[in-house]
């Protein structure tokens, strides 16, 4: 068993997925990798939550999936951010920043 | 927008399901491959890397299920799956399914059937404008333990109240219609001018009465019912404004009521004439007064209590206007305001509520039974559930599956129930007693269907919750590890099942006790002595119109010759006449004085007044207690005599013989008591006999009499001959209400028979279901303990020991159930008290008998599995493992 990685802050998975797709489309494993890398291994997303989240975001119309060949010439399902997804990411980022600032202030208050 | 995307996405997933599944597989495989590659790069061997990646992924099926359930369409899909799977499960176990559907069908069916009646009779609003504001008003007179309203009270209320928009009075009457086919005696009603506007009903043709048309000496006008207009006048629209002949007088037809008009009492008059009440205030002895019925429409927003207190205030003022004996009689009169709906339904309401409660109990028992069956089946299906849980089905998912199966059963049971209800309803239509209004037009309508659907779903939830709770308690690992066909013994589940059976037994006992009480009442009633011999008696009424038979001598002469003529008919033993037939209630009551006795103030010194032909009491078989019966010599010129009944003699003469004493009735001539006879049940079997004074009709005539023929054979065979003899004397006279005394007596019992039969049937169903319940639990317990019993037998236990071992369990269940049931019955049977006769609601005999019957049935149901246990072959039982 691998050492248990920290659980994601509740409700942030969707936002993180949107964020990883901000620059370029990625496939499922790529997204998981990216989250793990950027968080320096703090967050590890398991497929059981990741894939249902993709389906959810697709249904919201925030990401779109397409099959594409990978770097090593296999087919993979790539997700890319839609225009609405970009808007959603901006909203969520703003909201998150605000909340984080507030939480930080509370935690640092003496 | 995102809603639309979501919708389209879901539909696409549903339509292109295969492709979606394949893509999901591909995507997950790609993920595992990528993960494996990554691990190989960090130095793992290909096999190790693949294995690690797969572990990370976990169950692919679980992940796929997660993805599927992220979209709304999965709810629909799983529902479809659950239903398909549920139906397959029900098909696999046809015995279970049949028993469950039949049980539920019974429970839901009887509920739907009784609800059909309740809905039509109690729930449907009366067919008037804003019927919720219509009320029936009366005065309760404590001294008489009776309710009545005098015309003067009505006028005081109508003028002085602040709570009613309108008030109207009505009274029943009968009128003879001539000149339109055969002459006929018609039920009619006299109504004050505002009657129809208070109800908010307008005639479909012509107009209603105008405000002053009900004044004394007003115009002779009438309004016809739709039925009379059709049957007697060929629905002729030009009838309005024309005259018809009623009681020999000419009345102008003002209008025709709509076909669906319903009168406010339990009879339907065929025509209406103005109630020409004279407006007077107060009541003094010697004044003519009418007793009236009063309806009123409350102003919007007025509560019943407010209306009642307003009338109470007016009554305070009225108290001083009663003079003489009336002041005493009316002392403490209390105005009562009840909704017209409530008034219309009357006594039937209680009986129907009792029946509704009874079927509710039956349904609860049915639910408990099905829940029990489900629990037993749940044990057998434990492994299946555990397997599904292991394959990734969540708790909620499993619960939903189990609940879906329960609801499927409930729906099937509901369908069976509606079918049964339709059968029951047509039976009720034909067999129901005449005192339930509208019984003839009850039918399974949309209300009943909605009710049945709701009941079915509710029952599904009620009995479905038990298996769900049981499934929750199951540990998948544990059940899978268990071996053999033996399910796990969960003590909680066993307790639940025992509790369910105990509840069934208790409910069944309550029903059984209720039915027993009604049966005992009925038996009491059928053995109650009516005071006469009701067999072979033909009865019919003949009324003499005022204009031709105004003089008492004319009336007397007519009935004398009619009776003489009837006595010559072959097959007739005697022909007599009376004003009021037994069982049919009485027409008159009057106060009286006894010579040499002070007027009693502790009791109401009044008696029922009957007028009879000289041989009437003898012909009916009423026993003579002392003195003599009337003879033909007690005629108009002879000294005036009366005969008293035994109740009168006891109440006012104690142990003295009243014969020869002198009595003055209602301030008329003094009379001498000629004899005392036994009590005749004038007001029905249930009512206690009241003091009664008989007058010979030759000394006190009355224009309408009931003819009574004592016949040798079947009474109804003489109907034609009776009519012919009346026609011989006067062709214009109607002969009506032809019946036999046995029929009249039968109608007395009809509604009781109906209540008794229905409650009896429900109790039987309840007991049968409870027996099935206890049988199920016991035989299941025996199956569970086969192994243990085998060991006991192998160690030397005798058959009788095993029998006792199992029976003891049954006895405990039955004993607990019966104790709770007795307590419940003790608390509930008092609601039956007004339906009982001759037994108290807590009648010990009934309670004991009910307990014995139920205990016996329960023991029998437990004996069968116990017997099986006793015959267990230890070798087979031990190999069983």
Your description of this structure?
The complex is a heterodimer of chains A (110) and B (881). With 110 residues, chain A is an alpha+beta fold. Chain A has one domain (13-108): Winged helix-like DNA-binding domain superfamily/Winged helix DNA-binding domain (Arc Repressor Mutant, subunit A, Orthogonal Bundle), CATH 1.10.10. Chain A has helices at residues 13-20, 28-38, 47-60, 83-108, and strands spanning 26-27, 63-69, 75-81. Chain A starts with 12 loop residues before the first helix and ends with a helix. In chain B, the strands form three sheets. A six-stranded mixed beta barrel of chain B has the order 3-4-9-6-8-7. In chain B, strands 14-15-20-17-19-18 form a six-stranded mixed barrel. Chain B has a four-stranded antiparallel β-sheet with strand order 13-21-12-22. In chain B, a hairpin with a 2-residue loop joins strand 7 and strand 8. In chain B, helix 6 (94-123) runs antiparallel to helix 13 (348-380) and helix 18 crosses helix 25. The longest helix of chain B has 54 residues, at 741-794. Chain B starts with a helix and ends with a helix. The interface between A and B is medium-sized, with 27 and 28 residues.
């Amino acid at each position: 068993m691998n050492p248990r990685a920290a659980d994601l802050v509740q409700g942030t998975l969707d936002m993180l997925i949107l964020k990883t797709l901000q620059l370029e489309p990625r496939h499922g494993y790529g997204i998981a990798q990216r989250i793990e890398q950027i968080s320096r291994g703090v967050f590890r997303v398991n497929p059981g939550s990741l894939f249902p989240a993709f389906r959810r975001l697709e249904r919201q119309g925030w990401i779109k999936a397409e099959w594409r060949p990978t770097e090593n010439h296999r087919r993979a399902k790539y997700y890319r951010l839609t225009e609405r997804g970009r808007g959603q990411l901006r909203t969520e980022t703003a909201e998150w920043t605000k909340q984080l600032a507030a939480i930080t202030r509370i935690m640092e208050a003496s | 927008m995102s809603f639309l995307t979501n919708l389209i996405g879901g539909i696409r997933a549903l339509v292109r399901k295969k492709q979606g599944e394949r893509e999901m597989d591909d995507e997950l495989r790609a993920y595992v491959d990528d993960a494996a590659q990554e691990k190989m790069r960090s130095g793992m061997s290909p096999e190790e890397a693949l294995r690690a990646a797969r572990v990370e992924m976990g169950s692919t099926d679980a992940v796929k299920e997660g993805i599927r359930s992220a979209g709304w369409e999965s709810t629909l899909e799983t529902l479809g799956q659950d239903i398909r799977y549920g139906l397959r499960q029900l098909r696999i176990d046809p015995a279970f399914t049949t028993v469950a559907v039949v049980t539920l069908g019974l429970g839901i069916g009887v509920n739907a059937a009784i609800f059909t009646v309740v809905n039509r009779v109690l729930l449907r609003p009366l067919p008037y404008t804003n019927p919720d504001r219509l009320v029936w008003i009366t005065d309760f007179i404590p001294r008489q333990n009776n309710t009545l309203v005098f015309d003067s009270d009505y006028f005081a209320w109508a003028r002085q109240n602040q709570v009613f928009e309108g008030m109207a009075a009505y009274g029943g009457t009968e009128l003879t219609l001539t000149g339109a086919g055969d002459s006929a005696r018609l039920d009619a009603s006299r109504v004050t001018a505002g009657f129809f506007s208070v109800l908010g009903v307008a005639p479909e043709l012509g107009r209603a009465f105008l405000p002053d048309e009900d004044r004394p000496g007003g115009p002779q006008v009438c309004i016809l019912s739709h039925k009379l207009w059709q049957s007697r006048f060929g629905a002729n629209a030009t009838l309005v404004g024309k005259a018809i002949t009623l009681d020999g007088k000419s009345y102008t037809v003002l209008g025709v009521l709509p076909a669906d008009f319903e009168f406010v009492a339990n009879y339907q008059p065929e025509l209406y004439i103005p109630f020409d009440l004279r407006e007077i205030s107060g009541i003094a002895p010697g004044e003519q007064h009418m007793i009236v019925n009063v309806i009123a429409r409350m102003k919007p927003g007025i509560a019943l209590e407010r209306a009642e207190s307003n009338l109470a205030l007016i009554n305070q003022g009225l108290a001083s206007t009663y003079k003489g004996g009336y002041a005493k009689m009316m002392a403490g009169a209390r105005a009562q305001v009840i909704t017209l709906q409530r008034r219309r339904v009357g006594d039937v309401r209680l009986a129907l509520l009792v029946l509704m409660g009874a079927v509710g109990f039956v349904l609860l028992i049915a639910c408990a039974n099905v829940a029990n069956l489900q629990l037993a089946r749940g044990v057998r299906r434990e492994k299946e559930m555990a397997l599904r849980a292991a394959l990734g089905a969540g708790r909620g998912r499993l619960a939903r599956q189990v609940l879906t199966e329960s609801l499927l059963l409930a729906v099937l049971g509901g369908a069976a129930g509606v079918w049964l209800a339709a059968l029951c309803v047509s039976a009720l239509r034909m067999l129901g007693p005449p005192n339930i209004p509208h019984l003839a037009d009850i039918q399974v309508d949309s209300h009943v269907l909605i009710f049945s659907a709701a009941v079915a779903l509710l029952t599904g939830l009620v009995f479905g919750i038990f298996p769900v709770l049981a499934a929750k308690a199951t540990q998948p690992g544990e059940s899978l590890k268990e071996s053999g066909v033996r399910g796990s013994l969960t003590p909680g589940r066993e307790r639940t099942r025992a509790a369910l059976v105990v509840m069934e037994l208790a409910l069944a006992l309550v029903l059984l006790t209720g039915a027993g009480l009604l049966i005992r009442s009925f038996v009491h009633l059928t053995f109650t002595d009516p005071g006469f011999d009701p067999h072979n008696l033909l009865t019919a009424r003949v009324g003499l119109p005022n204009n031709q038979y105004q003089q008492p001598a004319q009336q007397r002469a007519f009935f004398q010759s009619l009776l003489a003529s009837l006595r010559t008919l072959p097959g007739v033993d005697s022909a007599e006449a009376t004003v009021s037939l037994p069982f049919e209630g009485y027409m008159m009551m009057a106060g009286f004085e006894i010579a040499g006795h002070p007027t009693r103030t502790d009791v109401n010194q009044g008696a029922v007044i009957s007028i009879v032909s000289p041989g009437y009491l003898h012909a009916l078989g009423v026993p003579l207690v002392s003195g003599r019966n009337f003879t033909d010599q007690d005629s108009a010129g002879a000294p005036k005599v009366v005969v008293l009944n035994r109740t009168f003699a006891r109440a006012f003469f104690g142990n003295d013989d009243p014969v020869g004493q002198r009595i003055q009735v209602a301030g008329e001539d003094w009379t001498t008591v000629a004899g005392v006879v036994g009590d005749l049940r004038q007001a029905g079997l249930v009512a206690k006999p009241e003091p009664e004074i008989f007058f010979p009709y030759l000394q006190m005539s009355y224009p309408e009499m009931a003819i009574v023929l004592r016949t040798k054979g079947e009474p109804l065979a003489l109907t034609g001959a009776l009519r012919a003899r009346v026609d011989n004397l006067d062709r214009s006279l109607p002969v009506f209400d032809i019946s036999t005394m046995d029929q009249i007596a039968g109608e007395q019992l009809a509604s009781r028979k109906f209540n008794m039969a229905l409650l009896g049937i429900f109790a039987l169903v309840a007991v049968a279901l409870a027996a099935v319940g206890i049988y199920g639990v016991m035989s299941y317990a025996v199956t569970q303990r086969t192994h243990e019993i085998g060991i006991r037998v192998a160690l030397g236990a005798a058959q009788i020991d095993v029998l006792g071992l199992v029976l003891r369990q049954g006895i405990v269940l039955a004993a607990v159930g019966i104790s709770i049931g007795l307590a419940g019955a003790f608390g509930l049977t008092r609601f039956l008290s007004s339906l009982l006769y001759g037994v108290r609601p807590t009648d010990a005999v009934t309670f004991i008998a009910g307990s014995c019957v139920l205990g016996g049935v329960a023991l029998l149901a437990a004996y069968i599995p116990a017997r099986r246990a006793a015959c267990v072959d230890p070798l087979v039982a031990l190999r069983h493992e």
